[in-house]
Specification:
Pfam families: Glyco_hydro_19. The structure is a single chain. Helix content is 39%, strand content 3%. It has 316 residues and is mainly α. Strands 1-2 form a two-stranded antiparallel ribbon. The radius of gyration is 19 Å and the shape is globular. The two termini are 29 Å apart.
Length: 316
């Protein structure tokens, strides 16, 4: 898809969101082979069982987004004016028919949105211990890596995802993407030429959110679950998973997304930072951190990583 067309589509979708996302939409309903399917218009379209549930804008609205990311437009932030609620909700509309934030009852759906945004906030934060508002109020401070130390080009993929001369594949997006092969794979999935134009992710907040939600909903490797599936309970651990102390819940989402860069390393700062953002967002959304679950569900400190990352893995 040409970037100009993508930008036009995103803009039109956002205009619809501005007018409609704050009001509950009554779904269209039909029964197919004894199963109830729904279509909720722009936000959850395509006759899905998940569209019969609460959609994200029913329980997560602009003021809550502003609360979660309160300092993102502070003058010292590095992506002032870039991120907003409508970009998020427009991106999420692509995945709500697949269960993103719509899988089950309202509580679980709210927890999934908090979990996803907890990862996003942690990975885009410029907060620190004595920062105004506290270190957890600074999510979405960045939309790209500010001073990349290299161009993240791996020639091993020169036949499948060859690097474009003069292009840098440093971190960009809501869950930052690194390396040519990750830009290539993500671009293929979304039908956007990110391999030749990775800068699209710093030009379009809807696309930056969509790539992150796609990563959340999609297994990193074959024969592994997605972060979405391990969080909402779609994934059933095997005997080997149980021996590796991998259980459904937030902790294993970190294992899926970051592997040994975060998990299996004990009580690490990188793991605790992600968890802290999740708990903080649960509180701000009115769910409460007491709903996060037990310690073994919340952390991955003792989990065996799904796989050991090569040196060219996505940055943690």
């Amino acid at each position: 898809m040409e970037y100009s067309k993508w930008l036009l589509f995103s803009t039109m979708a956002m205009m619809l969101a501005v007018g409609k996302c704050q009001e509950s939409v009554k779904p269209l309903v039909k029964i197919v082979k004894g199963k109830k399917l729904c279509d909720k218009g722009w936000e959850c379209k395509g006759w899905s069982k998940y569209c019969c549930n609460h959609t994200i804008s029913d329980y997560f609205q602009t003021y809550q987004f502003e609360n979660l990311f309160a300092k993102r437009n502070t003058p010292v932030a590095h992506a002032v004016g870039f991120w907003d609620y409508h970009s998020f909700i427009t991106a999420a509309a692509h995945y709500q028919p697949l269960g993103f934030g719509t899988t089950s009852e309202k509580l679980l759906n709210m927890k999934e949105v908090a979990a996803f945004l907890g990862h996003v906030g942690s990975k885009t934060s410029c907060g620190y211990g004595v920062a105004t508002g506290g270190p957890l109020a600074w999510g979405l401070c960045y939309n790209k890596e500010m001073s990349p130390s290299k161009v993240y080009c791996d020639d091993y993929y020169k036949y499948t995802y060859p690097c474009t001369p003069g292009v840098s594949y440093h971190g960009r997006g809501a869950l930052p993407i690194y390396w040519n092969y990750n830009y290539g794979e993500t671009g293929d999935a979304l039908k956007v030429d990110l391999l030749n134009h990775p800068e699209y992710l710093e030009d379009n907040a809807t696309l930056a959110f969509q790539t992150a939600i796609w990563r959340w909903m999609t297994p990193v490797k074959k024969h592994q679950p997605s972060a979405h599936d391990v969080f909402v309970g779609n994934w059933k651990p095997t005997k080997n998973d149980t021996l590796a102390k991998r259980v459904p819940g937030f902790g294993t989402t970190m294992n899926v997304l970051y592997g040994d860069q975060v998990c299996g390393q004990g009580d690490s700062d990188s793991m605790n930072n992600i968890i802290s953002h999740y708990l903080y967002y649960l509180d701000l959304m009115g769910v409460g951190r007491e709903e996060a679950g037990s310690h073994d569900v919340l952390t991955c400190e003792e989990q065996e990583p799904f796989s050991v990352s090569p040196s060219s893995a996505t940055s943690s």
